[in-house]
Amino acid sequence: MALRILVLDDEPIVCKRLKPAFQKSGYEVETFTDSAAALRRMAETAFDVIITDLKMEGADGFQVLERARELLPQARIVVITGFATLETAKESFRKGAFDFVAKPFKLSGIIECVRRLEESMTPPSATR
Amino acid sequence: MGIMARIANLFMGWRNEQSVTFALLFKKFKSILERNNRILELMADMGDKLGGEYIFDNKYIEDATFQLNDQVFKLISDMSVLTQSKNTALFLAFERIQHILEEEIAGRRHPEGSRMVLPFQDIGIEAEDEVGGKISQLGDISNRLHLQTPKGFAITTTAFFAFMSHNGLLDLAQKGIEQWDGTDQELHELADLMQSRIMDSPLPWRLVAQIDAMIDVLSKCSAHPLRLALRSSAWGEDGDSSFAGQYATELNVSPDRVVEAYKTVVASTYSLEAWRYRLDRGYHEHEVAMAVGCQIMADSRISGVLFTCTQTSSATCESMIVSATWGGGAAVVAGETATDTIYLSRTPPYPPLTRAIARKTRRLVPAARGDLVWEDVPEDLQNIPSLTDSQLEQLARAGMSLERYYKRPQDVEWTFDSRGELHILQSRPLRSGGDAGLPVPVQSATRKAEIIFAGKGLVAQRGVAVGKVVLVDHNTDLDQFPEGGILVSKFTSPRYARVMRRACGIITDVGSPTGHMATIAREQRVPALVNTEEATRLLHDGDEITLDATQNIVYRGRVAELDKFERSEPDMFEESYEYRLLRRLLKHITPLNLVDPHSDDFKPQACKTYHDITRYIHEKAVEALVVLSQRHDALHHAPARRLLDGPPLGLTIIDAGGGTNCPPEAPTLNMEEITSVPLLAFLQGMSISGMWDTAPVPVDLGSFMSSFTRTFTASMAGPEAVGRNLAVALRDYMNVNMRLGYHFNTIDAYISEQINDNYIYFRFIGGVTELVRRSRRARFVANVLDRFDFRVEVHGDLVVGRIKKLSVTRMLVRMHMLGGLVGYARQLDARLNSDELVAKHAQAFLEAIKSTIPAELAEPTGGKNNGTAHLGA
Q1: What is the mean pLDDT of residues B681-687?
Q2: Is residue A128 one of the residues assigned to a domain?
Q3: What is the per-residue pLDDT for B601?
Q4: Residue B273 contacts A where some CB pair is shorter than 8 Å
Q5: Pick from A20, A128, A98, A32: nearest CA to B462
Q6: Which CATH number is B526's domain given?
Q7: What is the pLDDT of residue B6?
Q8: Count of domains observed in chain B
């Protein structure tokens, strides 16, 4: 069925704009501005894709990424960040991110990214 | 950067034997040019974000503003080094702008100016800070959509702040909300307290005096005793129904009651419902300000409400609904009277579908002492339709125009006066009734629809449009453009601004999302997809299509679900805090006020925006470098010499090392003494090609070649016409800054056997003709550069072309071509009378220039690189 996407970004504007865009493309979307709430939800529901902001304020920028990886090892993680440096990108991939997108980004770009990722998914996870 | 390092080294070697000062100053000059460009790019980048294609957040806004602050500050600092002066006035201008931007970002908004009242005719959308959402929107409706709205004046937000802070009321609200425990009960108490305090507080006497003066003016142009309608117009109140429902409207107010009515409207800002609504929507307390519109009461013969979309079922919306009655409209809104109910088709010409004529026994008319009273409707009018078919059509057209603009079904309050003229009193998004929040089955609808093309083009303005294709070219009479059509054209053109009120979408084959047309499409919020390459080939006149300018897809037929989905999104981008903030910031960044360098206002004190500062410094930096090189101490180290022959540019050449071979003390030089490889190719291109001497092509292309030989007229040769032109030359390098008439050219080039270091940077901006022609010329320049493989960016009338890493020969061909191009383009904008001429001129130029390329530079046809082979086409 439809891919389930979780979006986590502490700026409401990002959630508000991504949600209808993904819905329009036929995905199921839940958005969170609070990481604790997002992680709780991940523990309950098997999301296929997690799109998460990478905050550099506070030392635990990557903690959400790691925790999400533990909770949902099958899920593909896309990092979106305004702190796009080579270091943060490398670290994100090392921590298991599937893609890394610098903010600001085009709406069509992020949807394309999810489409690619959908195609790359193996049938078992798609029919799960 | 390898290139920069090489140039630095060249200067280094030269410096050791010659003037240290000039090398350093020239470095500063180069840095000014680079920053100038960076600033223009940053500004364009921020402007693009308003189109809705990008997801951006607060951090982006803060970062981009920070970078701009930084670049502009350093630009002025560089200028200070270059001119050896403090530039206090520039720094002050910078401080002023930076302060405003910081205040905006921090959320402390203080409208500029101290106007407490403003007549409506002076109000446009840019006055939103001063007059609030609803009134500036009425300005929009009147100025952009050209629909009639009532006359009057606004009591501004400045007046609101004066009144509120005079009486300590803003602090009361701020503290109250900080200490609020989150319960309805306490908010209720706070709201009551605020409202009673407002009603009990006196208005500053200056405000009262200014209101009286405005009323006097209105009285003089009103035939009857003046009666006013006072309507709320809060910040952010873009006519949203939840706001509008909460804020007060006072009708038929006599002049002596205006102050009291004003306070009633202001007090309604703090009603429980309005306050609660703002809190839910994330409005901050500092975003609250209430302006009040005082309109002459319309002499209403027939009034009512139009919903541009009926919401009775979950099926797609195919009709609109009009409720109409005799007299004033307040009773229709309140549902207190019988009304005629007419369903109209949403498809032009919007024919009536069903009509229910009510028996209308009473109507609202203004009472002598204020407010409105009921009176009986004459017998013969009671059972007849209040609106004629032509009035219905007029109303429907206005409604659809409003709906397209606001991207939401609209709830429009309207009235026809005794002369039969339609006035729009207010328009706001229609709150959906039955199916609000229901998921729209958009996925299944789009899956079934045939895709004509997808994934092509760039979004200039996001949105969805459903309608019939109208193919447009330079021959099309735009006045005949049908209501609700989708404009499809080869090129973008600001000329299309005229049809944007009627077009529901725009698709073009070529064009940039940062061009003029895109800016206008964004202003008018018309969904626009540009650069699709082949839209005009795939789409035919009259085809019914659905344009999804959010996912770059064009579907065959009507995919109404998409449109519906778009119009039912709970949070519209254009209503978000971030959109509003970015727009407010850009108002202090991008408008250009310093247009004419010869004007008395071309001075630092007049700089109101970063664009002004940037423009001012660029002009002055070029002047400074010339003056500097002419100064005594610099003279024998880096002599500045006037070029005697060659194109009549009034060119001053500074030889920074190996650029010329004339005697050291010579005050002038000739073309043959130029040894700078890029500069010589450039100047030869300009003179050999004959382009400078050529009056730009007359419309008849047949006579183009004959015009080639036309001689240069003396009137064009005056120094005023060509401005201050400067070249700094080394053997392998040149930097040319030219002002020809009112447009600027900057060309920076390094050409040597080190192929990897070779580059040409070309920048072109400005002009004095109207926007349309200027942008045609920008397109012409971009078109030509593109054919020579430059990487081209067009932002409005700024064209930047870059190319690098080609062989010396290929680079020189391009310098030659640029010489011709600069000569050719210098007055072209005055002659670009139609869009079609852009392509013709480009073609004519390409053919002409090709024939002048010196044999030693010409390449064998079918050259392996994508070089000149492509020129012959």
Answers
A1: 90
A2: no
A3: 85
A4: no
A5: A20
A6: 3.50.30.10
A7: 53
A8: 4
Which is more confident, A110 or B759?
Answer: A110
What is the sign, positive or negative, of the torsion defined by CA atoms of B102, B105, B106, B109? positive
> For residue B56, which residues of chain A lie inside 8 Å, CB to CB?
13, 103-104
SS (H, E, C) B762-820: EEEEECCCCHHHHHHHHHHHHHHHHHCCCEEEEECCEEEEEEECCCHHHHHHHHHHHHH
Of the candidates B117, B73, B80, B118, the one whose C-alpha atom is nearest the C-alpha of residue B96 is B73
- B575 touches A at CB < 8 Å: no
CB contact under 8 A, A105 and B550: no
**A63 domain-assigned:** yes
A28 is a domain residue: yes
Check whether residue B518 and residue B535 sit in a common domain. yes
Q: How confident is the model at residue B414 (pLDDT cuts 50, 70, 90)?
A: very high
Range B164-176 burial, b when 16+ CB lie within 10 A, else e: beebebbebbeeb
- Cβ pair B442:A11 closer than 8 A: no
Residues B752 and B789 in one domain: yes
CB contact under 8 A, B60 and A107: no
Q: Which residue has the tokens 């998004």?
A: B429
> What CATH number does the domain containing B171 carry?
3.30.1490.20
| Cβ partners under 8 Å of residue B452, min gap 6 | B538, B539, B545, B554, B555, B556
pLDDT tens digits for B444-471? 777 788 999 988 888 888 888 999 999 9
For residues B707 and B698, give the distance between their C-alpha atoms in angstroms, rounded to a whole number: 8
B721 has a pLDDT exceeding 50: no
B334 & B479 share domain = no
Instruction: Examine the domain organization and report whether B654 and B802 are in the same domain.
Output: yes
- Final residue of a structural domain among B532, B567, B602: B567
ipTM (interface predicted TM): 0.88
| Judgement on whether residues B529 and B448 belong to the same structural domain of the protein | yes
Spatial CA neighbour of A7 closest among A26, A25, A34: A34
Contacts of A108 (CB under 8 A, 6+ apart): B53, B459, B550, B551, B552
- Percentage above 90 pLDDT, chain B: 31
d(CA B105, CA B46): 15
Asked if B222 and B327 sit in the same domain, the reply is no
Q: Is the Cβ of B770 closer than 8 Å to some Cβ of chain A?
A: no
Residue B580 located in a structural domain: no
Residue B481 has pLDDT above 80, yes or no: yes
Burial string for B429-456 (b: 16+ CB within 10 Å, else e) reads bbebeebeeeebebbebbeebeebbeeb
What are B210-253's pLDDT values in tens digits?
A: 999 999 999 987 777 889 999 998 886 654 445 656 788 898 99
B655: closest CA among B3, B26, B24? B26
Residues counted in chain B:
873
CB B713 within 8 A of CB B845: no
* pLDDT winner (highest mean) among B52-56, B158-162, B372-376: B158-162
Q: Is residue A18 domain-resident?
A: yes
Q: Are residues B291 and B340 in the same domain?
A: no
Distance CA B850, CA B691 (A): 12
Give the minimum alpha-carbon distance from A94 to chain B in angstroms, rounded to a whole number: 25
Residue with tokens 């920069």: B4
Interface test with chain B among A1, A17, A88, by most B beta carbons within 10 Å: A17
8 A C-beta contact, residue B323 and residue B305: yes
Q: What residues make up the domain containing B359?
A: 300-417
Mean model confidence pLDDT for chain B: 81
CATH number of the domain bearing residue A10: 3.40.50.2300
Residues B479 and B556 in one domain: yes
Contact (Cβ atoms closer than 8 angstroms) between residue A78 and residue A34: no
The Cβ of residue B119 has, within 10 Å, a number of other Cβ atoms equal to 13
